[in-house]
Amino acid sequence: MDKTNWKLLKLLEGNGRLTYAELGKLVHLSAPAVAERVRKLEESGAITGYGAKINLEKVGIPITALVECQVYRTKEREFKTLVMSLDEVISCHNVTGPYAFVLRVAVRSMSLLDVLLERLIDLSDTNTMMVLSTPVSREMPANIEKGAELELD
């Protein structure tokens, strides 16, 4: 992964709708050269998709919470199956510590959050934290290309 590829990733993370010509101007390459690099990044799995960033509050889903789940012994497979079936779960992270999973969930109301938590209670103890704001939200660390540049030297 060279410096140019890191720049392409950052640019596409910020705006996945940039054309190859626009990207080329920003990284000082031709549009066909950029297209080839992006194709290789997609084929390698470095780029896994493109999508719109949705403001959940603006579409009527104002409540976001983080739910720490301490899954009961022998219930992990059943827990994962349940979590994958829950539409309210935006992300699920398997983590270290007493809470094996951290879920990010979004719901329209507190009563719907309560219903969701009730579904989890048979398989885990939970601790819920309400998200007040998200001052930083990225797919990659900022300035990652600087670290890559140091590794290349």
TrEMBL record:
Domain of life according to the entry: Bacteria
Taxonomic placement: Bacteria, Pseudomonadati, Pseudomonadota, Gammaproteobacteria, Oceanospirillales
GO CC term, one of those recorded: cytosol
Molecular functions (GO terms): sequence-specific DNA binding
Keyword Membrane part of the UniProt annotation: no
Keywords: DNA-binding, Transcription, Transcription regulation
Any one biological process term the GO annotation gives: response to amino acid
Native source species: Marinomonas profundimaris
SUPFAM superfamilies, per the entry: Dimeric alpha+beta barrel, Winged helix' DNA-binding domain
Official protein name in the record: AsnC family transcriptional regulator
Domain HTH asnC-type per the UniProt entry, residue ranges: 1-62
